[in-house]
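Appendix C: a fully annotated inverse folding record. The material below is reproduced so that readers can follow the format used throughout the book. The structure is listed first as tokens, followed by the designed sequence.
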């Protein structure tokens, strides 16, 4: 979609051009490597902080989830408040006495249908590890529709059974699209929340990245290329619903892409030169997120003149966090180099890489 404005600072960051800053200290420096003197403080598992709320999208909210499947359980999410679903975050704070720190918003996976208790685990694991590098990290809750098709997440079923001539498939595709849009808008709202409370968190409101695995990476990609669609919901007191305030500065992820909902197997139409720099990894034989979608998204972004790093593992089928863990050292180097460059933390960092696309 075309934007009617592009702030100069936004355009410069998208091109990898930043204001003067300290030289990159290399892979062991703050924001690049694990710091031995940082012990993150993580929100306790049972103490997620409610930051806002939105109308629920799950017809099963508050009742039995995944009925008739091995996942069947009672909904553990908080009760609705005035008809709105409370949305929570878990934080991993470096607790290193610094202010104006960069922030990363981590987004969990689950096919937009499961993972309703995944926020703490992500905060205490990858979130805490990036907090040890100096980033203030947040694992954010977003609205989920727990509807399954058999035992599959609805969006997974849609991807696996493409048939534009089947009215059932078309209806489920639209529901999946709605679910992804809800997640995107929830994360955009959380970016606004962080900006509105930047001094409280000790973060720099101009240095916010989004990140995720699987459905979380899809959401990070959608935020990167659809940041100007924050929706109409007012999530928290003082929420401006501002497009500019919704826009992060960078996105990273494993096994993610932005689909074209009108025609499968073609590039997304929402990408243009005002969008957000991205750095992703993907495997060619991933069975959960179509590699072609990842490749098309990165290529469209690069063609628009954006920084669009994609490391492709062409002989592998690992997915999301498993792919990250298999290539952790290389991926952390890729992501931290990207972050310190695109967030304007250091100067002298290596130039961005072009997307690596598997062929034949």
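Designed amino acids, in order:
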């Amino acid at each position: 979609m075309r934007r009617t404005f592009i702030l100069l600072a936004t355009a410069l960051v998208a091109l990898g051009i930043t204001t003067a800053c300290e030289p990159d200290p290399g892979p062991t420096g703050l924001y690049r490597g694990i710091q031995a003197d940082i012990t993150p403080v993580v929100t306790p598992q049972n103490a997620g902080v409610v930051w806002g709320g939105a109308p629920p999208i799950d017809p099963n909210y508050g009742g039995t989830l995944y009925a008739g499947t091995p996942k069947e359980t009672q909904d553990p999410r908080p009760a609705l408040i005035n008809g709105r679903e409370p949305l929570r975050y878990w934080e991993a704070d470096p607790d290193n006495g610094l202010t104006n720190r960069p922030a990363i918003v981590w987004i969990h996976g689950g096919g937009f249908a499961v993972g309703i208790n995944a926020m703490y685990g992500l905060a205490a694991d990858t979130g805490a590890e990036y907090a040890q590098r100096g980033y203030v990290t947040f694992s954010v809750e977003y609205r989920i529709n727990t509807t399954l098709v058999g035992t599959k997440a609805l969006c997974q079923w849609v991807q696996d059974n493409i048939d534009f001539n089947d009215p059932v498939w078309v209806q489920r595709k639209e529901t999946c699209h709605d679910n992804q849009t809800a997640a995107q808008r929830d994360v955009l709202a959380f970016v606004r929340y962080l900006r509105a409370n930047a001094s409280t968190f000790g973060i720099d409101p101009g240095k916010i990245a989004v990140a995720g695995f699987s459905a979380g990476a899809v959401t990070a990609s959608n935020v990167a290329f659809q940041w100007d669609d924050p929706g109409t919901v007012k999530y928290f007191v003082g929420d401006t619903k501002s497009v500019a305030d919704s826009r992060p500065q960078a996105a990273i992820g494993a096994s993610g892409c932005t689909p074209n909902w009108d025609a499968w197997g073609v590039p997304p139409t929402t990408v243009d030169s005002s969008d957000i720099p991205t750095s992703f990894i993907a495997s060619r034989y991933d069975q959960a997120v179509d590699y072609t979608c990842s490749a098309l998204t990165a290529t469209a972004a690069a063609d628009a003149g954006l920084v669009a790093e994609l490391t492709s593992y062409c002989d592998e089928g690992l997915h999301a966090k498993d792919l990250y863990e298999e290539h952790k050292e290389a991926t952390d180097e890729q992501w931290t180099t990207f972050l310190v460059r695109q967030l304007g933390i250091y100067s002298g960092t290596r130039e961005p890489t072009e997307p690596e696309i598997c062929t034949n």
